User: Fold these one by one.
Assistant:
Number 1:
Amino acid sequence: MAHIPYPYNQIKARQYFFVSTGKQRIAKVAEFLPLGRSNTFNLAFGDLRPDGSIDDKNVSNNGDIRKVLTTVIEILRQFTESEPHAMIYIEGSTVERTRLYNRILTTYYPLFSKEFSIVGILNRENKKKPVLFDPKSDVEYFAFLIKRIN
Amino acid sequence: MSLVNKRKFKRVSKKRASSYTIFMREINTQDTLFPEKVARANKMLSEIEIDPDLFRKK
């Protein structure tokens, strides 16, 4: 990744915490939620509010989105090293966020694809279809599934 | 009391250290921070069939 990730702490087996230090300091948390399907986890990510609740829709415009996402990818890397057979489901909390993840995956695909295989989920006429992620395509993916290959 | 960021060995203010302590206490008392996400992701995954070979194609 082109950016250096923020230092992060593992709070629990599947929970991570770091602080974004852009224009302001914003506490961030990432969590891998076990799903009904075996070895499958939802990567959830958001801002930690002062009352301890989570905001995963807030657009903070903190000026460090790439560094924040580099940190999340670093966390993903660490988690999948300890759970090499895990399949990670990622869906943005809003359409804009999913688009942002799409752009990030496209930008860093040459690097990312050395370690991970990415499946994009298409949503056409309310029918979902998983296909191999194509960084050259301009189709809009609804969500992503990521698995470590190396 | 001050909190030391071990990675950078940088001291942070008492106020900030106190905020972090509250954050950590709050999040440590919760099993999951995103309870609503699980049902949504499970529903989504139940609607698709994933061919394991899809991950092997390049």
Number 2:
Amino acid sequence: MKKSLLGALLALTLGGVVSVLVSSNTLLSLLTQAIIYAVFALGVGVLLKQNGMVSFGHALFFGGASYLIGVLLQMQRIPAEWVIVLALLTITLAAFLIGLVIVRVPGVAFGMLTLAIGQMFFLTASRARGLTGGADGMNIEWPSHLFGVSMSQMLKPASMFLTCWTTLVVVMLLLAWLMSTRFGSLTEAVRDNEERARFIGIRTLLPRAAVYALSALVTGVAGVLSALNTGFVSPESLHWSLSGVALMMVVVGGFKALWGPAAGAVVYFLFKEILGEHATHWMTIFGITLIAVIVFSPTGVAGLFERWVLGKKPSVKVGGH
Amino acid sequence: MLTINLFNGLVYGALLIVMCSGLALIYGLRRVVNFAHGSLYMMGAYIGYSISLQSNFWVALVAAPAVMAVFGVLLDRYGFRLLQDRDPLTVVLVTFGLLLVIEDSVQTYWGKSNLSVPVPEALAFSVDLLGTPVPAYRLSVIVIGAAVALGLSLWLRYSKVGLFVRAASTDPVTTSMQGVNTDFLSAGVVGLGTALAGLAGVVAAPFLSLSPSMSADVIIDSFVVVVIGGLGSLAGAFIAALVLGMVQAIGAVYLPDAAVLLPFVFMIAILIWKPSGFAGSRT
């Protein structure tokens, strides 16, 4: 735990340094976007890491959080700070209830279920012009001040970057702490052998639904950051292809390590921005990389790093039986 | 008005039958939920387009599925076969990566704008169906769908290879112990499955234009069909495809908002209560 705290402090300092030194606003915005996606991927990764389940529908929580904020702010009854809290709470609760029903479904069927649920909400949002602005999306009307900081100050690229980076570090720290508690070991036991876990007296439904809700919460946080960053949300934020992109980041980065999904997000953005400059078919190369990673290094970039640089032994389990 | 809607529903249902039988076959033999199936459909359509530019539609109708069959055999030999001992989710993720590669490659090679394939002159007329004129080409799509359904059912039921396929879908290990070369068989069936996806693409091209979003448009519906019908069950897929086609066509006119959601509600219900679908695991 002390190591994690130290690491977190270092990361925060690094973030501060970057935000001061990097003067290019484009670069800062790009990094901010990458960080938001990293938080999104982190949510998907938590589900894969602790539950061994693959979700194709997490964009629901990402876009859902943004939409909730947009709708609640539109009503102009509740202060914005509480809107954020309320949106995240709603997402977590909804995910827990959904999770109670769907985590019982095994294997690929679970993935397809998440796909179907996600698409349902995508279609609903695309059509509910009155509430959500339909396929055009909706603007999110933030007030002039948030948590005491003025909006114009917060929206500056450097401060936006710092906000998102701090959120990422704090979320990772909290997750690392949570996974080191009994809850973490319990869910890992359930992931590896559900039947045996039940034999030793663990009730498997609640922990797994809780992890699902937790992963939804993390993804929702990414949605909040995105709502802050762009001030806009559209049904694309709910589409399964977005969930797919997040899943790709998790797989390429590696889900065994907590920082894997974040690494995957970085790789994705590197491909997109740097490779994308020179090759229009960067997605093909990314797809091939994805396949290569799955086949040759199922623990992803993070796993490779841990094996080559830190000399750890590999241990693989997707799904877990 | 109702006739033309029912008719269009049948047409889309027939298209789904051709596509989803491929998906069901691949699942049955290799236990792989092929996320790339929609992109294979797209690939078939675009290849068919290029071939029909060089010669004509009828050549494309035969050649494009043939090309896709070769692709499918290679996919099985160097993809699914090598990954068969891995966790099923791993293979699903690989098909997802394949989806990205195919979609992007198609876009790079053929461009992002919509392309159109003209209806072949032999079928560019109207037929009178119960008082409503319908395009003959669309009628032929229904015929093709019915032919595929009938052909596959008969082949599986009455031929020796069909028996091997059914056996390998049920228990690959025991089947190979009985002397059936399951690797060869799987390559063939996966090739057939991809060829069917390609055929659906070529057939769809004249009445649905070619666009980069083709694969995404159709993959979700395919999954809905295969899940509702029962993963691996062909008969279930046929029925579910027709039902879905009708629901969408009729619902689009009378109950647009509910109709789009209904297939998903159904799919979710089935996945929760009976993950093996309506027809179960019987072929």
